[in-house]
Amino acid sequence: MGVIPMAVAGDNRAGAGDGQVEAEAAPGWRDRVRARRGGHLALRVVIGVIGCVMIVSGLIMVPFPGPGWLVVFAGLAVLATEFPWASRLLEFAKRAVLAATDWLRRQNWFVRVVASLLTLACAAAIVWVTLKLTMGIDLVQMARAFVL
Questions:
Q1: Which of 17, 29, 50, 118 is the most exposed place for a label (fewest CB within 10 A)?
Q2: Rounded-to-integer distance, Cα 80 and Cα 17, Å
Q3: 61: helix, coil or strand?
Q4: 88-115, pLDDT tens digit by residue?
């Protein structure tokens, strides 16, 4: 028994009279929300708020060990589902990250080690400042007391 390809309504790939059966795709949840009065605006607002919260929380997490940049990119991906500017920004960010990682991959071991040490030093400084300012814990003093 042969398989008959189905075309989505409005899909121009299936020409009239070429023997293909045209069927309508079931509407997705976004289409059902947009079909309601005010649904399109409500959907954009909800997605905008969720995406912005994800981006801000990701940026807060960036200096700390964990998935900070991953959450930022996920927030951009959420925004990109409704906003074309977010889609363009996400594509730009992908290209920039790929260019930086490709550049670092082409460097010799010394440059890679220096880049890693600088990244580690920045992360350690951010953790030290955060602990000192928020909890009053001075890791440098604790390390000195431990060593001496």
A1: 17
A2: 37
A3: helix
A4: 999 999 999 999 999 999 999 999 999 9
